[in-house]
Amino acid sequence: MENLVKTIDGYEHHFGFRDATSRDGVTISYFASLEAISKWKNLDDHKMAQQLGRDSFYEEYSVHVCEVLRDYGFQA
User: Fold this and answer.
1) DSSP readout, 58-71?
2) Residues 6+ apart with CB under 8 A from 32
3) Count of domains observed in the chain
4) Which of 2, 50, 51, 64 is the most buried (most CB within 10 A)?
5) Domain-located, residue 15
6) Res 8: pLDDT
7) What is the pLDDT along the chain (76 residues), one digit of tens a residue?
């Protein structure tokens, strides 16, 4: 999925992390528009991966679609 999401026009970047013990994790993906998010959500290969995750890997999950209003930080 990592290489596939990069093919979506409007994809910007993503990052994720997993807890080694519990296998809980988070992936955050950034897109330029709601249209790009919709393309990713409705891509057939992505839909198949989502179904596989529901059937075989995850007891529960959630999706949040949010708008970043500010993004700032500190880098050394």
Assistant:
1) -S---------S--
2) 10, 11, 12
3) 1
4) 50
5) yes
6) 96
7) 889 999 999 999 999 998 988 878 899 999 999 999 999 999 999 999 999 989 998 888 889 999 999 999 988 8
- Distant-in-sequence, close-in-space partners of 28: CB < 8 Å, separation ≥ 6: 14, 15, 16
Which residues does 16 contact at the CB level (< 8 Å), separation at least 6?
A: 25, 26, 27, 28
Looking at the domain assignment, is residue 69 inside a domain? Answer: no
pTM over 0.70: yes
Q: Which residues contact 7 (CB under 8 A, 6 or more apart)?
A: none
User: Could you tell me the residue range of the domain that residue 8 belongs to?
Assistant: 2-57
Supply 44's token pair. Answer: 């057939």
Cα 23 to Cα 25: distance, rounded to the nearest angstrom = 6
